[in-house]
Prior knowledge:
Largest interface: A-B, 33 and 38 residues
Oligomer: heterodimer
Order of helices and strands of chain A: EEEEEEHEEHEEEHEHEHE
Number of helices of chain B: 10
Strand order of the largest sheet of chain A: 4-3-7-1-2-6-5
Mean pLDDT of chain A: 96
Distance between the termini of chain A: 28 Å
Number of strands of chain A: 14
Low-confidence stretches of chain A: none
Largest sheet of chain B: 8 strands, parallel, barrel
Amino acid sequence: MNLVSCTVFSNREVSRGNFLITLQVPRGFAKPQPGQFVHLRVSHEAEPLLRRPYSLEGFVDRAGIRAVRIYFSVVGRGSRILASQPKGRRLDLIGPLGVGFSPRPRRLPILIAGGRGVAPLLFLSRRLAERKRPYVFLFGARSRGELYGVREIRGGRVHLATDDGAVGFHGSVFELLKREWEEGSHSPLSAEVFTCGPHGLLHEVSDFARERGIRCEASLEGPMACAVGACRGCPVPLLATADGRRYPAMCVEGPVMDATAVDWSRLP
Amino acid sequence: MKAGLAVRIGSLALRNPVLVASGIIGYGREYERLVALDRIGGIVTKTVTRHPRAGNPPPRVCETASGMLNSIGIENPGLAGFLEIKAPLLRDLPCAVIVSVEGEDVEEFRELVQGIDGSGIAHAIEVNISCPNVGPHGLRYSTDAGMAREVMGAIRPLTSLPLIAKLTPNVTRIGEIAEACEACGADAVSLVNTFIGMAVDSRSRKPILGTVLGGLSGPAIKPLALAKTWEVVQSVDIPVIGMGGITRPEDALEFLLLGATAIQVGTALFADPLLPEACVDGIASYLAEARASSIDEIIGSLEIPEGRGMIRAGRSERADREMAAAREGRAS
């Protein structure tokens, strides 16, 4: 983890309100793992005050150039400013931070993405493809336009869902998981789940996994102040059966965590 | 010639007046790759309580206009956990280590001060009698001069380490609390802790913080913090450590000019880990430009133009007398 200056290499709106920004980082920047994040200062102005934590969509490392890619939606002050940063603008970030996904050997990874939560799972899918590992990628979004990155998924079996039914299954990606689990004759010893998306989806997926004893990692999202474990501003509530008296910090014990231990009902 | 930046807080000599505030930098190690600890005066640790605290339910932080609300709730491993797990991390830090403590009653303050004193790792103790986020007890000791006196009086005989009383701004007359701490042997006072604040989500019709109320920090509070610090420096003779919204080196200088002996960087560190070092450099170049040989020439050198009226908001009677005396002295 380091504080590094970075330069906007490209920044484009890939669908309405959703952007992909590529930030060139120094060559000394450590290679991030899928699921790790950076704490980005979206401008050098005094407002907004705090950095923003962004999970990485990917990492570019070729021809001596290193860059991190962030897929984000405009949801507030910080993301609106980030969306307006032109090519060549210098920013700075702290990273790579946190704990990423940890797929186990010889188990089939089932990736479940909801909306912009697809970002770290695209990163993970590329890493799996590099290692020639098979995987299943279930991706749900509101509409066709938000099915970002689907055409670049290589080496995995892909199933899509949309809320409006325009593409793939008409309904929630959670239904795709239930179907995949039943029809694929998977077992907790042969498959495991990696998920990211709205907390409602993560709640459903983790209940499903807990009931069946499936190993399940989720990438969490939430406000952070320091992002290095110092301020204790990003507590994750755990179930009483896990370690309910303790609040692990999302920034250093996550953002990827054992989804079956998280008390989603107490996580805003 | 390079001007001297060293300052003293009681018997503690700091290489410069720039500290990082409690609750910001953990126990130092969390930020050691980002903050140049060997260039700053010191750090104040996360507050240690007698028993472990899990902290408050989420959400604990919320960004506001030029500021941040927090309701962390002093999540910490308790005194025994601190001594076992955290103290070894602090031992070799290349700067002064000020350990922050907070008790629920006088007895807990006693145990904490004895425990920290005995550990040998602290260069000073900051007595947090002002956290807004720990239920009914926290603010009690620094909103009431009698209770502040009770705590400071009880712990003063237990240690020869410098004792710094950290004050809340959520009072009408902060100068009187500072005077009470001084009278009971505090070596310094530090201020301000956060201002009590609240954020509401109009869409969900709910408060944003898990605890409804929280503490406001960041540049939004700097003018408020300067006013409280100004009041306190006129109320006591012991060193005052100023903080609240320091975001640029100029902000640090403003606190020094109105009489703070040292400053603490807080919330802005999250955005800019290079800020403490920048404050050191900014103070040094300010002294060079002013051709000052020592920082003592800057501290308290604020000039109040003659005849400039001052409002009385919250000043103690002693502060009033001293200001009147100062004006007479200038007139004669």
